[in-house]
Amino acid sequence: MIYIVISTKERSTKILANHITKKKYFTDLALAQEKLRKDFSINYTAKTSKTITQEEFNSMKGKCTDWYGISNNGDTAWLNDINGVDYDIQILSIEK
User: Fold this and answer.
1) pLDDT score, position 20
2) How does pLDDT run across 19-32, given as a tens digit for each residue?
3) 13: confidence class by pLDDT, cuts 50, 70, 90
4) pLDDT: which is higher, 96 or 72
5) Cα 83 to chain center, whole Å?
6) 15 vs 24, 53, 55, 60, 89, CA distance in Å?
7) Taking the CB of residue 36, how many other CB atoms lie within 10 A of it?
8) CA 48, 55, 2, 90: dihedral to nearest 10 degrees?
9) Is it the case that residue 48 has pLDDT exceeding 70?
10) Contacts of 4 (CB under 8 A, 6+ apart)
């Protein structure tokens, strides 16, 4: 199985260009989940000026506010109004 971490901007179907130049493809689900957490954390920090730990991210799973949400399993997350931009981040899986 190959896991791809996809980020979209402004709820668009257009994938952000940095997916071509940055490593976003994984054969280990745990590594893909860590990449999603890091991408989420970067945007969370941009909004709040607070860095979140792995434990804090895990405690946020299954929660939804007016500006962020994380699925129960942590494979999908979204953030609204990060410097005026909305982001969706998710892990897609493709069988080899």
Assistant:
1) 41
2) 444 557 899 999 99
3) low
4) 72
5) 16
6) 12, 27, 28, 25, 10
7) 24
8) -30
9) yes
10) 24, 25, 26, 32, 91, 92, 93, 94
- What b/e string do you get for 54-71 counting C-beta neighbours within 10 Å, with b at 16 or more? eeebeebeeeeeeebbbe
* Residue 37: pLDDT band with limits 50, 70, 90: very high
Q: Give, in degrees to the nearest 5, the angle at Cα 94 between 24 and 56.
A: 50
Measure Cα distances from 4 to 73, 84, 90 in Å: 16, 26, 8
pTM score above 0.85: no
SS3 sequence of the chain: CEEEEEEEECCCCCECCHHHHCCCEECCHHHHHHHHHHHHHHHHHHHHCCCCCHHHHHHHCCCECCCEEECCCCCEEEEEEECCEEEEEEEEEECC
